[in-house]
Amino acid sequence: MTTCSAPGKVYLFGEHAVVYGEPAVPCAVERRARVTVEPREDGRVRVDAADLSLDGFTVTWGGSIDDRPDIDAPAPLVEAAMEYIEAAVRQAREAADRPDAGFDITVESAIPLGAGLGSSAAVVVAGIDAATRALGTELDPEEVARRAYEAEYEVQEGQASRADTFCSAMGGAVRVEGDDTRTIDAPPLPFVVGYDGGAGDTGELVAGVRALREEHAFAADTVETVGDLTREGERLLADADPEREPGDELLADLGELMNFNHGLLEALGVSARSLDAMVWAARDAGAAGAKLTGAGGGGCIVALDPTDETQHALGYTAECEQSFRAELATEGVRVEAA
Ligand SMILES: Nc1ncnc2c1ncn2[C@@H]1O[C@H](COP(=O)(O)OP(=O)(O)OP(=O)(O)O)[C@@H](O)[C@H]1O
Ligand SMILES: C[C@@](O)(CCO)CC(=O)[O-]
Ligand SMILES: [Mg+2]
């Protein structure tokens, strides 16, 4: 039996624009998906994803991939989860050169689904690592990231960048620009997350930005401007001392860029009333900056605030269902038990 875990992430800058070759800086945060894998002799795959929940929905699903489960849960949710896990299994079988390997798989995750914190990437990254190790093959985290990207790309029908999977596999802060992926130094940033309890449809939101970009030159310019502000943010991080808590000046400069980034994402049509309400609650509470994170449409915002004020204020914001501090996860995918 092998258990691996992988973290979720927030975007400091650059989601959506990263799909069109602009740079982005996601940061891994200490909320993890854990995947436990036990090889099976009979070549079948059984999956237990006990906390598959969305919008307050909780389903218990124990089924086999060859034999679709008959459960009372939103079919598209179960289908999507099966697809991510099937894609991870395919990658693991190929990497270990065991095309007929079977598995019992258990998924447990503390990352809300479809909310911009990279739950899909974390499940796929931890799943590939656990399944290959269960077969006696060890991949380095870069290889896990590459295979996890292939899996996400396939399930999301081409609407995926390398950002989420690379960040989850490597941990810490990373920068992704097209196929160029690297880890970068960053100080311990005081992230606060607000979650509206909902979710956005990543594929639909990416398609919406694509259409706007094709229709209007100014929308294409908006995407490029996100790239410009991301590059400026990267310079701020490069000049900072990664060992020290960031000072007020650095937080103010990063926060200003986050606010600008949120405004541009809003212009690109991927924000939501609840996300804007949480962003404003954070700013009113004194956060250095706040923006939506991930695909948008609903889900999470991320703010920078070393004090408790933002988390406290979000706790009293009607649109916010949950708020929590998110520590930078310096470790990416890791073995929990083998
Ligand atoms: N605990 C889990 N168990 C099984 N499947 C999961 C789990 N968590 C996430 N998934 C899969 O990932 C899907 C959500 O992925 P999606 O890319 O839409 O959102 P996200 O990764 O949470 O957010 P974003 O990509 O915006 O950062 C779920 O519908 C499900 O298929
Ligand atoms: C919206 C997007 O940029 C981030 C989703 O977390 C899509 C992607 O990069 O795959
Ligand atoms: Mg995802």
TrEMBL record:
Residues 84-172 form the GHMP kinase N-terminal domain. Residues 251-310 form the GHMP kinase C-terminal domain. It comes from Halobaculum roseum. It catalyses: (R)-mevalonate + ATP = (R)-5-phosphomevalonate + ADP + H(+). Keywords: ATP-binding, Cytoplasm, Isoprene biosynthesis, Kinase, Lipid biosynthesis, Lipid metabolism, Magnesium, Nucleotide-binding, Transferase. PROSITE patterns: GHMP_KINASES_ATP. It holds the Pfam family GHMP_kinases_C. The lineage of its organism: Archaea, Methanobacteriati, Methanobacteriota, Stenosarchaea group, Halobacteria. This is Mevalonate kinase.
